[in-house]
Amino acid sequence: MSQTRNAASNSPIPSTSAAPIAPRAEQPIAQVAEKLGIPDRYVLRYGHDKAKIDLDYLADLAPKQGAKLVLVTAISPTPAGEGKTTTSIGLADGLRRLGYNAVLALREPSMGPVFGMKGGATGGGRAALTPADQINLHFTGDFAAIAEANNLLAAMVDNALHFGTVPLDPRTVSIRRALDVNDRALRAIVTGLGGRTGGVPRETGFAITAASQVMATFCMATSLSDLKRRLGAIVVGNTYDGAAVTANDLGAAGAMTAILRDALAPNLVQTLEGTPAFVHGGPFANIAHGCNSVIATQAARSLGDIAITEAGFGADLGAEKFFDVMGRQAGIAPDLTVVVATVRALKYHGGVALADLEVPDVERVRAGMPNLLRHVRNLQEVFGQHVIVAINQFAADTDEEIRAVAEAMRGLGVAVATSSHFADGGAGAIKLAHAVVAGLSEPSRTSYAYDGGLSLEEKANAVVQRVYGGERAVFSAAALRELQRLEAAGWGSAPVCIAKTQYSFSTDANQLGAPSGFDVPIREVRLSAGAGFVVLVAGSIMTMPGLPRHPAAVDISVDSEGVITGMH
């Protein structure tokens, strides 16, 4: 497979001759920007604790000479997640305690999980972003703007059908409306009812905003002009003759870009210890490409000595898409990859029930180790990464269980570091920070799961076989026809973005550990032309999730002082 030498990989890690940076309480956002050397006139404040950074300022910056990029990923998670975001935050805080100018680049939370099962996505304990409640809810309005731009395009599609201004076949319309709430009732709907005043009836559905085409396009854009170009390229359907109809054909790209103009500037917040964090864009990794915006990652690389970013869910999803989808297009490659593991998750993959994960059981830890081993080997052998395993430590973890992880990794030449950042903040991540600094002396040589010249089907099979450990991708008749149509239309060189469950390497959430020999059924193929990739919907995954039996929203309230309570 092709290889890319990481930028600045031959440069030394920045010196820490300065005194280690002591942790600080929350500071005005202007002071956080000042620490990064951003002139005040480019800091667009949204209150005293969050801001956007002017795109014109960022456009003139280049990655710092010698700056390093660390990617944080994880093993296949339990339903509660394994603390990838808290580990990213704790690591950044720990590095700053050692005197390194660490800067975070993270995804914005979606209100789907906030009100659903997982809860918020701003970290937790003493390894958290602030202002957490605002970030988890409306933040600076980016998600609302993305949904509005997406829905404007959908409205213009239906308007074109109503007036017949474009010869668009309604049976081929692929754009879906978006909403940032889990709502299974909107997965499949009929629009246009009401006779002559209602429009053209057709079947359609909603996607959650994080899975929308506009979100993916937004996160891949590098500038306003690039965003406008990408938005204009979005294919909304076909004519009766089979020709693609784009947002440009409807005249929608300009207005969509206007809606997204302010949103495209990355958001700057901080951790509880004052570490700067760019939080921008938020596609899910199980149903989209799982990385924060290219702009946010580039900003962190330009303003920090060590930039830390994360990719959603396990390494088979977020990390694979970071390399094969986002990184390949944007020319971004990490110098080091950290895999977050928990003793709890290893026991889960070893057959322990969720209710019993706190019970010490070193044999079940060993039984679940194949999941971690496969993720680590994939990162080493498929993606060319230098890997460190970070154990997100819980109070119930025993020394024997942790030693079992270290012993399993020793044969792969992988360092293991425990981290108690949730309880202890940056101080609890010092061992992990030292391991990362040592690991950065041996940078990765990034490679990919497939060559760009393969067909879309061959790319899908490469991911299934080389990353998932499966046998092959099996396409439904309709999905295969669409795949062949996209190949004929010139999309064969695009990367593939497989949408599947996060709980297993397979498409069956109950197949834990490291299953092999399975097929991956692809039931639907969708083109995300603006983002530059083809989405393959596998198994029973839905681009509009549903709420669980007991939604997290039930526990959320506001007291008489306006303080939000019950948000996980």
Number of helices: 19
* Proportion of residues in β-strands: 15-25%
The end-to-end span amounts to: 42 Å
User: Which class of secondary structure composition applies to the elements?
Assistant: alpha/beta
What fold name stands as the CATH topology of the largest domain?
Answer: Rossmann fold
Q: Roughly what is the average pLDDT, rounded to an integer?
A: 92
Low-confidence stretches: 1-12
Give the beta-strand count: 26
- Quick one: CATH class of the largest domain? Alpha Beta
Overall shape: it is: globular
Full CATH superfamily name of the largest domain: P-loop containing nucleotide triphosphate hydrolases
Largest sheet descriptor: 12 strands, mixed
Any idea what the radius of gyration is? Answer: 23 Å
Number of domains: 3
What's the quaternary structure here?
A: single chain
CATH architecture of the largest domain: 3-Layer(aba) Sandwich
Give the helix level as a range of percent: 25-40%
Essential attributes:
Domain 2, N(10)-formyltetrahydrofolate synthetase, Formyltetrahydrofolate synthetase, domain 3, globular, 34% helix, twelve-stranded mixed β-sheet, alpha/beta, 568 residues, disordered N terminus
